[in-house]
Design goal:
The protein is 35% helix and 23% strand. It is globular.
Length: 278
Amino acid sequence: MSNWVTLGCSVIGASHVRRNKPNQDALAIHSDDEVTVIAVSDGHGSESYFRSDIGSRIAVDAIVRMTQKSVILSSSMKRDLIENNIRHMKSRYLMLWQDGVDKHIEENPFNEEDKTQLAQLKKNPRRPYGCTILAVIVYKDLGLIMQYGDGDIIGVVDDISADLMEEDSRNFANATLSMTSLTEASLIKHRVLKSEEIPNVIMLATDGVKNSYDDRGDAIKQFYKIPLQLRDMLIKDDKDEVEKTLEKALNNITTNGSCDDVTIGIMVGDMVCHEDVT
């Protein structure tokens, strides 16, 4: 599948509004003739990660830049070649994120207050930019999922929503992997989707969304209905209206749920979408 309708929204968490902190999440969407990309990042936001909102923006921008500087993946390639190209992509991605952070530090040096707040700056000056990354990259006949840290990537097949990536045991309780501790690009998890395996609907969400639903009962089922609901709205309404509805829904989710920043990016095969959507 090569044609997609993409949309997304990021809403600052209710707790961050009260504390006058910026949204730590970031979202990037890119589409051209060769590839469609959605990337979502969640900045850690705690005191030690006082520039994580910037780190998350660099993280999603680096995904888009990576796809523009990499070989186009295709099902016609041998499996070994595909995996080799992905290794190079992940290495390039890590380099782009680290270079982006280093450039920001150079242009915005830490002040004395920063250095007092984080004594470990000399050991790891990138630490304040800590964040996660979720990305879906779909070529004409091949899909690539990348993930480092928590968050959810959901696919819809035959009206059934399911996780496209297994839960990473390296994320434990409320602690997640961080881009600032990533030294080997090979540690970024990935999954290749053949053309027939690419779901018609793919949704990415930062952990603040799922954490707003009680996972001990049927409430969590409502989380997995979100991509179905967005798809159905796109069938009936145009993209702008759906984005407005999504923004209202995310504001409600954070206010009555996790109070965390919440971000959703979604891509839907345009064969099922409203004919006015572009």
